[in-house]
Amino acid sequence: MSFIVAIDGPAGTGKGTVTKILAKKFKLINVDTGAMYRCVALDMLNKGVKLEELDKIKEILENINIELKHENNKDLVFLNDEDVTEKIRSKEVSGFVSQVSSIKEVRLSMVELQRKMAEGKEVIMEGRDIGTYVFPAADVKIYLDADLEERARRRFKQNKEKGINTPYVEVLENIKMRDENDKSKEIGALKLAHDAEVIDSTSMSINQVVREISSIIKKKKNEIKMQGKIYKERKENAWKKFVRKVVKVFLSALYHIAYRVKINGSVPKEGAYILCCNHINYLDAAAIVLFNKRKVNFVAKEDLFTHGILYWLGHLFDAIPIKRDMQDIEAMKRCLRVLKNGELLGIFPEGTRKGMEKNMKAKNGAAYMAIKSNVKVIPIGIHGTFKPFSKVYVNYGEPIDLSKYKNQKDKLDEATEIIMEQIVMLTKKED
């Protein structure tokens, strides 16, 4: 997986220090782009190659070998198999590197190498044009800035710790000149990417800067993770929809051969509805699912999903298994999610086959969800025996609005009776 963090900004903002900490924290490969340009500058100095000697510079670029290693908790830089970690930070190299990095051929060569180093990896890079030129599509772009005087003070302190006794005034002037050079370069100039997060570190500690950038990286990683999940789900759903369509066509054809199904009425093309139907046979749910242009998420007892073909069909058509003889909270949540998404939910209010024939009291689940989610109920009456070559009538009624029962839990039985009355009437209708 590729994940790129680009940190740009002028000299002395703490980019290098922050990048090292973040690399360790998030286990990112730290590609020190500045060190790479310093290697070219050092190689030119060692070989006495001048800025105007383009042919010799090209020869150096063709043969140069730069390796960035992490050994014994230290970031090491190797130039042509030699450890030059300290040498590239010398005063001579520091005063020369800006001019070297301005050479078009050097810039193009290093950018190509940087991009190769990042291929398929999780990396972090700091420089002045990482987010604008090297990796314009970087996942995270940070522009780290600070006041000129503060940056000079930091660089002065760094030099002192390394035993470099450059006067503060000279350091200040060098950084000022570096800023001007970096911003005026023809290629890879220092500039703010339009989509970069700007962080002013003037009055911030290193830890504060690290915390702020860390939160940005974490947020982006979570977004990418979520996007990947959504893409996977969409891919799976697309395949699932295709298979469901094929199966639906096949089973519908079988139904037409076995039974003479007559559909009276329909459901609206859009919007959430609860389809409530009488339950006379295991095949009645299929009569609704197969002959409905919209997908119907049917609620069915959990026991049905233990069998091979029924388990597969239940999963394919997004049936919702429910535990009987207990309040299945998880199933209820799934039902409410279906309605919230504007889909169709199928329920047998009787809870079992031939409930009406046995004068069994219908369950209040459908009425409860209709009132809670503020959706209408469409009653469906199925008339027929489901005997081979017999007629089966599937009759759709008008949507029932139960909104008047909102906040009236004691009226659920009444609301359920209204639904059942309509279903009973529809079961007697044949044409």
Key terms:
15 strands; 7-stranded mixed β-sheet; 14 helices; Rossmann fold; single chain
Description:
This protein is α/β, with parallel strands linked by helices and 431 residues long. Helices cover 48% and strands 18% of the residues. The protein is built from 14 helices and 15 strands. The strands form three sheets. A seven-stranded mixed beta sheet has the order 9-15-14-10-13-11-12, with helices on both faces. A five-stranded parallel beta sheet has the order 2-6-1-7-8, sandwiched between helices. The two termini are 61 Å apart. The mean pLDDT is 86.
The CATH class name of the largest domain reads Alpha Beta
Find the CATH topology of the largest domain. Rossmann fold
Name of the CATH superfamily of the largest domain: P-loop containing nucleotide triphosphate hydrolases
Multimeric organization: single chain
* SS strand fraction: 15-25%
Q: Can you list the strand order of the major beta sheet?
A: 9-15-14-10-13-11-12
Structural class: alpha/beta
Give the termini separation. 61 Å
Radius of gyration: 35 Å
Number of strands: 15
Q: How many helix segments? A: 14
Low-pLDDT segments? none
The H-and-E topology, N to C, reads as EHEHHEEEHHEHEHHEHEEHEHEHEHEEH
Domains, number = 2
**Biggest sheet statistics:** 7 strands, mixed
CATH architectural grouping of the largest domain: 3-Layer(aba) Sandwich
